[in-house]
Amino acid sequence: MFLACAGCSGDDAPLEQSRPVVGVMPELEQRLVVPTSRLKLEILGSERIVAEQARVILRGDVEGGERFEVSVSAEPEREGDVGNLHVTVDAAESVWPQAPEVQEWFAMMNIEVILRDEVGEVARGELAGARVRFVRALAPRFAIDGETPTFVNGSLRLEGHGVLRPEEGQTWAVVEQGFVEATPGGRRDLAGERLPVRWSGSRELAEVRLEPGVFGVHPGAYEVSVRLENELRGGAGTTQGPSELAFGAALQPTFLATLEPAMASRGQMVTMRGRGLLGAGQGYGMILRYEGTFDPADPALPVMNFEGSRALERAVDEVLSDELVRQEVWYSVEGRALEGLGATPGVFEGRITPIVFDGAGESVGVGWQGQFEVLPTRQVVWLKYLPAFSRALDTFGLGNVEREIRDRILEVARRDFAGVNIVFVEDEPEDFADYAVVEIGGPDPSGNRAFGYDNTFNDQAKDTGNLYLNDYLGGINRESGENFNVLFGGVFVESFTYFSPTLTPGNRDASEHFDRVFGPFMAALGGDAVRGSEVGRGPRASQIEEAVRVAGNVIGNTMVHEVGHSLGLTHLPGDWEAPGTIFHNAEPGGFIMDAGSERSFEQRAELDEEGPAVFNAVNRAYLQEILPVD
To answer: Taxonomically, which superkingdom (predicted)?
Structure first.
């Protein structure tokens, strides 16, 4: 039996605690391990958990004999701020130093994960009976599966077994012999060139691209014979595959065929399809040349001519493959004005031509021709719910109606911004490069118990005209801290307990409605949390429904107020010339952009016939001017 403990400390002793330990389920992403593997565990059921440290215990029976146990300390992470936690264990440091002296072995493993926060153990789970294969030297064994690529940057599909994961090292296709012949550039010998075999998410499938840095970017022809090899990271070893792969073809000119959509607003991504498309690399690249005319939607503006020397040239924003690229309807903020193709709504009519180049010269490809319409600005807002938001709802006893509360928040946002070209989404946008983000969490990190704060800052106090689309209401903004002494932004749900007369006695802003609505469910007020089985039924159904509506109204009202700030509110006529520092309505009257001290709990919650608050006439006219509905 072999034992190991990496990063162990005395804090592993169980701590006494009254809170329950959450049950979670570790899921192992791979079952074949090489000496440089990193074992990545997704902790299912950890979406609401905030943990600072993880203990991972690997126990196993080696087929044919020994037992082992390894204990390691790791830092839990999320891919972004939402979703399940992940824990990574470096097999090179933990398992392999204790492994049997054989080339290949199997183990039946149990994997236990213990998550801790600053108080103590918060969650625990175990994966039992995982059969894992350990291999010291992994040879790539692949065959060609599909057509030979006929465009530079095109891909050759491979099928077989043994490609390395990115964290383990690199699988290479090494050219044994071959050439490429093109005009300009002539004939070049490719023997010894190394082409990276790209990870596709599976050890059984991979692809080799005609890398522009190797094959050039020009029309011509090529023939190569390659052998695959696995190179482990850190010089841990190289293993060759057993056979060669031969392929070749004529290389066709780059072309651009379609644009989708044919109408988009500034900051939106347009998908372009063609062949031989590529991005920038060492010594090569591609630009798109826009030639034609632009007719602004505003009849007072003149038609712009982009022919000849006035043509617009732009690098591609995102290259997905030789067949697919994405280009933003680009713009830039210059002082108090916008420039670029997306600066003004209107219609572009003409050609978009791909031009590829390397050290041998440039080749003009075959372009797309037609019309493309730039639409009025659309503001997209991503409501980013952090794990602390779920934990905050748990303190209100409303964790089991999170979905219903989030639905109500969306209803409030869409109602309040009706008639304005703004969209609220709960998933990170994929069709817009520029969008606003609002983090909705639990406590106020500043300790001020603020309900919410717009901490964006774009070199001016107010973004009059909404020139900047990518405001981030959350995290830390040091410019905001320097100018307004507030670093953190977002919506802070735990702060709404300020309105409870029981929890904040003597508070002049407290409301008996808070305790009446949330008291039946909040442990701090003697209540019992909502059970999943009683949502929509049972004796407390009407109370639950009201709590959902009130929570959604209060959070939604705060979020709408902060988004209003990010759009340039409150608006005063003089802000067009020089944005000022007046952020709230001078004359309150039940309006969204009134100061917080003027917005009672009843108004926010829409109780006692107060609310819903609305944008006053000046602010609504401003919003409809900067974000007119298509």
So the answer is: Bacteria
The side-by-side arrangement of strands in the sheet containing 255-260 is 255-260, 269-275, 324-328, 318-321
Please check whether the domain covering 255-375 is classified as CATH 2.60.40: yes
Amino acid found at 390: S
User: In this structure, what DSSP letter does residue 476 have?
Assistant: B
Q: Write down the pLDDT at residue 409.
A: 98
| Residue 57, amino acid | I
- Three-class SS of residue 577? coil
Domain 141-251 falls under CATH 2.60.40: yes
Q: What is the pLDDT of residue 8?
A: 36
Domain 379-626 has CATH 3.40.390: yes
**Domain boundaries 2-135, corresponding CATH code:** 2.60.40.10
Report whether 254 contacts 152 (CB < 8 A): yes
SS3 460: coil
Same fold, 255-375 and 379-626: no
Cα distance between residue 290 and residue 451, in whole Å = 47
Note the pLDDT of residue 16. 42
The β-bridge relationship of strands 318-321 and 324-328 is: antiparallel
568 with 583: CB under 8 angstroms?
A: no
| DSSP bridge pairs for 131 | 108
Angle, vertex CA 476, rays to CA 473 and CA 480, nearest 5: 75
CA 189/CA 407 separation, integer angstroms: 62
| Position 11 confidence tier, pLDDT thresholds 50, 70, 90 | very low
pTM tops 0.85, yes or no = yes
Residue spans per domain, the chain: 2-135, 141-251, 255-375, 379-626
